[in-house]
């Protein structure tokens, strides 16, 4: 009996010791990971979200890839070197708005090309004290005044509320790709980008370390050799990384999970709202709820800058893409069919004709002067046809209506969807055209049923035309983005001063080792 009691005491002491050791290790790991995180204040620069009818709010994160070279690792990877520890002199090489829906059922990732020209607002970086009164310039330059300034610039351009930001540098890309055990990508042809140094044979490769960085930085190897082509290949890379994250072999392995957490916390700079391991875990949990087939990658539609052939400006269609994100609308569906809006349930049937193909005759049937002009301008801002006009209705009307000609119901539905007008307000007439008569039931604003012009994050905002939103936006879902990055057929690179295609450069540089086997 005495021996049995001694064994019980020994067992209890052993268990207690194991609990203490485990708890101590857990606390050490938590403090270690927390100590890795670098966070800065956002100070409301990205606006504020509005909850939906169920009290839920979406999450919008600006992912920033910095081209800064202010440490030994970045200098080695990026070429050239800087000495400042702040963001002065840095540019946002990559900008992606990551939107997770309020119900966590879908997500959209929208790339904003770094060559986009826009208005940068007045900003001051609290770390460097660098400030600007505001200027018109390339969007990626805002990072020189701190991450909060980059957030404010994207918010101002898109109207999308930005809740958080996540920033990583060259070394961060290397750490993350290594932590997941490499990322599998495919290239359509042999490629050698003499600028990013990416050199790969046609086919599929697992990229780690420098090779991963070379791939996501390559802008001369893919597409038309511009930043626009690079965004598409980056989406392929991120889609592959997401699939790797979600694989059982990654998330079920404690060693891999720790390796990922350690790499992520060392690689990232975040806003204060994400500045702890617990908050990052909560974010990762929310992201993990979204199936890969419901994650849509897109690129902001652009047009040539009329004053600089090497720069771009947002195209008219980009306003629809911005609106889908601001209105919390999904660009993907489980069945792969038409996207459904989670915004305004009272709106008419979903649009079936792109807004750009619809011209609207807007007529003011109220006693308020200028109403037709306000609404017409709102429609033009949403991408409706340049033939959209405004004027006064023949008589006053108590009810807002849309009258459409024979065979033009789809056009009328597109208009109704854009302004949030119920389907019961649509009627067919005998003459061709789409006529919107503003009644006294719509006294102000550009969204029917609201007193203002709608806004980002609000559930009363009019649903955007999802077909127009993804037009020319290179939309693809994370589960379907398994194709090959299209190598540029143009002479975008050169060797010894001789212009050539990336595939020709691959053949000419036969003595140079490939980036990956």
Individual helix count: 14
CATH topology of the largest domain: Aminopeptidase
Q: How would you describe the shape?
A: globular
Could you name the ranges where pLDDT drops below 50 across 5 or more consecutive residues? 15-30, 73-80, 83-88, 334-350, 451-461
Largest sheet: 8 strands, mixed
Number of domains: 2
Any idea what the CATH architecture of the largest domain is? 3-Layer(aba) Sandwich
Describe the structure.
The chain is an alpha/beta fold and 517 residues long. Helix content is 32%, strand content 20%. The chain folds into 2 domains: 59-317 and 475-508, LCP protein (Aminopeptidase); 355-459, 2-Layer Sandwich (Alpha-Beta Plaits). The protein has helices at 2-36, 72-78, 147-158, 170-179, 209-217, 227-246, 248-251, 254-267, 277-288, 318-326, 371-381, 409-419, 466-470, 502-508, and strands at residues 38-40, 59-66, 92-100, 107-111, 117-120, 123-124, 131-132, 135-138, 164-168, 183-187, 191-192, 199-200, 203-207, 268-271, 295-299, 302-305, 308-314, 360-364, 389-392, 401-404, 426-428, 434-438, 476-477, 493-495, 498-500. α1 (2-36) runs parallel beside α8 (254-267), α4 crosses α5 (209-217) and α4 (170-179) runs antiparallel to α8 (254-267). The model is unreliable at 15-30, 73-80, 83-88, 334-350 and 451-461 (pLDDT under 50).
Tell me briefly what this model is.
The protein has 517 residues and is an alpha/beta fold.
């Amino acid at each position: 009996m005495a021996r049995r009691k001694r064994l019980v005491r020994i067992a209890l002491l052993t268990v207690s010791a194991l609990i203490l050791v485990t708890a101590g290790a857990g606390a050490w790991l938590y403090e270690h990971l927390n100590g890795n995180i670098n966070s800065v204040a956002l100070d409301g620069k990205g606006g504020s979200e509005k909850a939906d009818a169920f009290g839920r709010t979406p999450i919008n994160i600006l992912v920033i890839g910095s081209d800064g070279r202010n440490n030994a690792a970045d200098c080695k990877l990026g070429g050239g070197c800087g000495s400042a520890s702040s963001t002065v002199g840095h540019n946002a090489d990559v900008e992606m708005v990551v939107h997770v829906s309020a119900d966590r059922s879908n997500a959209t990732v929208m790339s904003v090309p770094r060559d986009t020209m826009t208005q940068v607002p007045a900003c001051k970086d609290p770390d460097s004290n660098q400030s600007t009164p505001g200027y018109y310039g390339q969007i990626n330059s805002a990072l020189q005044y701190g991450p909060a300034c980059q957030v404010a610039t994207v918010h101002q351009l898109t109207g999308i509320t930005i809740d958080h930001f996540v920033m990583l540098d060259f070394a961060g890309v290397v750490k993350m790709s290594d932590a997941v055990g490499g990322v599998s990508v495919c290239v359509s042809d042999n490629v050698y980008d003499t600028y990013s140094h990416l050199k790969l044979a046609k086919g599929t490769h697992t990229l780690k370390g420098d090779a991963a960085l070379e791939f996501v930085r390559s802008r001369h190897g893919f597409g038309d050799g511009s930043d626009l082509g690079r965004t598409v290949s980056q989406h392929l890379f991120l889609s592959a990384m997401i699939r790797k994250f979600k694989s059982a072999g990654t998330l079920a392995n404690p060693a891999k999970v720790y390796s990922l957490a350690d790499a992520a916390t060392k690689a990232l700079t975040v806003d204060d709202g994400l500045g702890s391991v617990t908050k990052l875990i909560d974010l990762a949990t929310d992201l993990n709820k979204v199936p890969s087939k419901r994650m849509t990658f897109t690129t902001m539609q652009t047009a040539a800058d009329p004053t600089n052939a090497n720069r771009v400006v947002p195209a008219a269609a980009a306003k629809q893409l911005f609106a889908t994100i601001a209105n919390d609308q999904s660009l993907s569906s489980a069945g792969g069919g038409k996207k459904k809006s989670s915004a305004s349930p009272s709106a008419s049937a979903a649009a079936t004709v792109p807004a750009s193909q619809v011209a609207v005759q807007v007529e003011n049937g109220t006693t308020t002067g200028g109403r037709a002009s306000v609404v017409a301008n709102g429609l033009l801002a949403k991408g409706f046809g340049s033939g959209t006009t405004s004027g006064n209705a023949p008589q006053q009307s108590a009810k807002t209506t849309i009258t459409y000609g024979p065979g033009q119901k789809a056009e009328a539905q597109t208009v109704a969807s854009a302004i949030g007008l119920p389907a019961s307000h649509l009627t067919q007439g005998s003459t061709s055209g789409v006529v919107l008569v503003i009644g006294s039931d719509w006294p102000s604003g550009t969204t029917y049923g609201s007193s203002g012009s709608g806004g980002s994050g609000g559930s009363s905002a009019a649903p955007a035309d999802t077909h127009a939103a993804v037009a020319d936006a290179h939309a693809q879902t994370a589960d379907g983005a398994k194709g090959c990055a299209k190598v540029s057929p143009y002479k975008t690179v050169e060797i010894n001063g001789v212009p050539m295609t990336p595939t020709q450069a691959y053949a000419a540089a036969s003595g140079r080792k490939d980036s990956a086997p």
